[in-house]
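User: Please predict the structure of the protein below. I'd like the answer in structure-token form so I can feed it into my own downstream comparison script.

Assistant: Understood. Taking the following sequence of 316 residues as input:
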Amino acid sequence: MKKYSIGIDLGGTKILIALVERESGKVVDFVKKKMKKEKGSKNVIRKMLSGIDELFEITKVDKSEINSIGVAAAGQIDRENGLIIGAPNLDCFDLNIRQILESEYNLPVYLANDVEAATIGEMKFGSGKGVDDLVCVFVGTGVGSCIVKDGKIIRGATGTAGEIGHIIVDLNGRPCACGANGCLEAYASRSAIEKRIEGALKKGRHSVILDYLEEGKSITSSMIRKSIEREDELVTHCVDEAAIYLSGGLASIINFVNPKLIILGGGLIEAVDYFYKKTIKNAKLKCLPVPATKIEFKKTSLGDFSGVIGAAYLDI
């Protein structure tokens, strides 16, 4: 077996590309490309290819030592054919990413959902190590999850199991990027919080988040954290609302799947501890009494690198 693999995490706001040492799971070098507003297949491919080329430039590892390229994408995946079927937060649909990368780099390419890859990373080297029954939930641009039962990932009949972000929490609710209305993602993601804050600001509400927000820039998780630390009423209210909705989604998972552990990750969880603590407190209160006594919660221990590390092992 060759010594390294390239792991790629295609997220809604950034593309992270890393060279991962196979034996240890250590990230040797990495390149991060911000997506900002440039979505769509052409922009995603352009940024990804430039990032891979940049990684080859900065690393001293010879290409002959690289075993494979693994791609983790936020959306529905056709693993067998190497397709991104639909990734609304990237505006990518029916994209044959395997064909593009294999022809460009002459390396085998493997594909998975981003939370599935992150779960693999956490099970091998992080918070899920040694646990056979768990659910991993990531909260960022969207809300995604992966279910593990008896040490195996549950993918479902069409390979799309674990889409907690598209549980319907309000039949006539807010529009979601997937095209439906009332999805959990439209209430509990960082994007949902951002929209709620921006809407209130446009109506004239005051918030200290304006101290950090530059014209034309998006609201970030760190801005949200700083505003909460300053006890900002508007931001705290929007985060409280999202935490309540997410706790309901987690309580539903606990009742339905009955995992031993729920791992929470993503930019919002990592940056805003207030959101994490409020969410798990309410999830335990909302789920059935017996599983409530047994369920454990942990944050990801690999942080930003969960996805790229897991993606590097998609060939196993």
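That's the full token string. The chain has a mean pLDDT of 93.
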